[in-house]
Amino acid sequence: MNTPQAMVHFQLNGQAAQVPAGTSIAAALYLCGDGIARHSVSGRARAPVCGMGVCQECRVLVNGRGQLACQTLCAAGMAVETGDPS
User: Fold this and answer.
1) CA 77, CA 86: separation in Å to the nearest integer?
2) Fewest beta carbons within 10 Å, which of 30, 37, 38, 69?
3) For every residue of 24-69, which 3-state class applies, written as one string?
4) Can you give the C-alpha Rg of the chain in angstroms?
5) What is d(CA 26, CA 30) in angstroms, rounded to the nearest whole number?
6) What is the pLDDT of residues 31-73, one digit of tens each?
7) What is the pTM of this model?
């Protein structure tokens, strides 16, 4: 028998989103959005590449603080903003 999986509700760029518990923000970018984490200085869209925090391409703001999306799990009520976190 299948047990329903717990879902985490959060905000992604001001929009309500939900993913299964244990999902990284990097995965949530693909599941709930366009997969883009930020833009380069030339304006090109950038997405998570390495998945282990080395490339830094997945930088996002989480509740106003810079985080690596591949290293951060989605949590209830968090606000994730993509773009160009400082």
Assistant:
1) 22
2) 30
3) EHHHHHHHHCCCCCEECCCCCEECCCCCCCCCCCCEEEECCEEEEH
4) 13
5) 7
6) 998 999 998 889 899 999 888 889 899 999 999 999 999 999 9
7) 0.89
